[in-house]
Design goal:
By secondary structure, this protein is mainly alpha-helical. Helix content is 85%, strand content 0%. It has one domain (14-446). The protein has 16 helices and no strands.
């Protein structure tokens, strides 16, 4: 089997390279965002309780996703640096050991998750009428968790090589699978059973299984990044330590968001199921609006990692500068579009006037902060690759737990649900400004020592 992994991001025009990498990722991430939007659209047609139920699951699903993405950040950082150094044996060892680590973690997640469904969602504020719906969705979702966690790690390893087309193509295939299966299994079209919310879960797990198969094939057969050579105890431990040094703080950082969103969901639940349903919708719309920046962040990490391994600090500094400028411009554009299109967007998901009103309210208040929120996300990606995971964690803690949650409590008391949504906007802007200045200070003062 040939060795194919080599540094691809250490030469050539920076902007052109970032654009070339980002465009395929936009398609892939857009596919996964639409994946979630389609679930929400179809489930919304079942009724407000079903929409509220899937909205309640979002913080828990985000917890698992955050752990996976955190490990993925660690994997991308260490593998991209090994590629930049030209060490293929290390690339194989790190990739294989990262996948085994992810498999062990997912077993623990499933065991805990299955035994705590009811108390977890009661704590989030779920009413008795939606609890059976939540259970039928989460039982299936947890059973397929392996196909959610492990492929995220695998796709991070593929992106570390500088290949964004393949992960994007895999995500698009998963999206197509999901959009075909969703209506068939939710509504029972033709010979398929009408499974309702459970059908949405089965469609999601099946689509994720497709991602699992395709990513493992690419890593083993095409990239030669998986080895079946059994590592020594020290080798395996060394790989895990390298990944976890960045992955644990990154996962912890990512976990702050769903934990905070769980608190926010509990606050919003006081205003009824229509308010929770609206929160579930706007969370997915927000992901759609920030797809471009999510794509840029996912390619900025391997770009920084490979150039870090190759000792090319100037390329890192310029890439960060260009990315921050683009983030602010894109955030401004999304604010204008969502302000204008708030009502038609809301009407797509549900016909309940309360749900529509709350969606419009959110989209009128929060998107003004999207530019600085994007700067925060980009900064976190760069800080993790620069071996500054704790700095990234501090920024996310500040945004969610120091600013958003306390301000939401105060805002809810003073202004109702409008105060909760306004708190999100204020927290995003303050944290984004802090991230901008902190990252640029770190780049100026410590890049030489890091390289």
């Amino acid at each position: 089997m040939q060795t194919t992994t080599k540094a691809q991001l250490t030469e050539g025009p920076i902007i052109k390279t970032l654009v070339r990498l980002t465009i395929p990722m936009i398609i892939g991430i857009l596919g996964m965002v639409i994946f979630n939007l389609v679930d929400t659209l179809f489930v919304g047609q079942l009724g407000t309780n079903e929409l509220a139920a899937i909205s309640f699951t979002f913080p828990v699903v985000m917890v698992i996703g955050s752990i996976s993405m955190g490990l993925g950040v660690g994997v991308s950082a260490v593998i991209s640096r090994a590629i930049g150094e030209g060490n293929h044996h290390s690339v194989q060892r790190l990739t294989t050991d990262s996948l085994s680590l992810g498999a062990l973690i997912v077993v623990s997640i499933v065991a805990v998750g299955l035994s705590t469904i009811e108390p977890t969602f009661r704590m989030l504020g779920a009413e008795p009428e939606v609890m059976p719906l939540i259970k039928e969705y989460m039982l299936i979702w947890y059973m397929g968790a392996t196909f959610i966690v492990v492929p995220m790690i695998g796709n991070s390893a593929i992106r570390a090589t500088g290949d964004t087309k393949t992960p994007s193509a895999i995500m698009v295939v998963a999206f197509i699978t999901n959009i075909i299966l969703d209506p068939l299994l939710i509504f029972g079209i033709g010979p398929f059973p009408r499974w309702g919310l459970m059908g949405a879960a089965v469609a999601t797990v099946t689509a994720r299984f497709v991602i699992f198969l395709l990513s493992m094939w690419v890593l083993y057969f095409r990239e030669n990044m998986i080895t079946f050579q059994v590592p020594t105890f020290q080798e395996g431990l060394s790989s895990w330590k390298k990944v976890l040094y960045i992955g644990v703080p990154a996962a912890g950082t990512n976990l702050i968001m769903p934990v905070g969103m769980g608190i926010i969901t509990s606050l919003v639940s006081v205003y009824g199921n229509p308010a929770v349903a609206a929160l579930g919708v706007v969370t997915r719309v927000e992901m759609f609006a920030l797809t471009m920046l999510m794509a840029l962040g996912s390619v900025l990490a391997p770009f920084v990692g490979q150039n870090l391994g190759a000792g090319k600090k100037e390329r890192i500094v310029l890439a960060v500068k260009y990315s921050q400028q683009f983030a602010m411009a894109w955030g401004g554009l999304m604010f204008i579009l969502l302000l204008v299109l708030a009502r038609p967007i809301a009407s797509m998901f549900n016909d309940n006037p309360e749900v529509i009103a709350n969606i419009i309210l959110y989209l009128s208040l929060v998107p003004i902060s999207y530019g600085l929120l994007s700067v925060l996300y980009l900064s976190n990606n760069v800080l993790n690759v620069l071996n500054k995971p704790l700095h990234a964690a501090v920024l996310m803690i500040m945004r969610m737990l120091v600013l958003y949650v306390p301000l939401a409590y105060v805002g809810s008391y003073l202004f109702g649900i409008q105060g909760i949504f306004g708190a999100a906007s204020v927290a995003n802007m303050i944290a984004g400004v802090a991230a901008y200045y902190w990252l640029n200070r770190i780049l100026r003062s410590t890049t030489n020592k890091l390289l």
